[in-house]
Design a protein that fits this description.
Blueprint: H1 6-18, H2 20-28, E1 30-39, E2 47-53, E3 59-65, E4 77-83, E5 86-92, H3 93-96, H4 107-128
Amino acid sequence: MLLVFVPAAAMLALGFFAVRDVLVLRRRGVRTDGRRIGTRTGPDTGPADVAYEDGKGRRHHIRVRVADLPPEDGKPLVPVVHDPARPERAMTQAALRKPLWRADDGHLLVVGAGTAVLTAAVIVCAHVL
């Protein structure tokens, strides 16, 4: 009987795996200033590259959505949050502030929860009818 919940459990696990970087950065992330170093297509479309330095002075790069960058007002600085234990794990501060379901691949959490609720509703209806 519990096997019917396997797809829902798998989707929830996949969703939590997809947003684990967000959860880790919210818990132990360190803020630093990054610099916007370019955009892949146009200035307002496509991904943008941001360079930042970790606490040990090593330089890292991340690719972010242009929507997750602050408006360009002549300042190339971008607030970046990185994990001191794994400095290549980073994202912009704006992306980190989004609700989990709006994070990259966070929709998998919603799909998993919806699948679990739908499965439970079908089981309850099957027993009632």
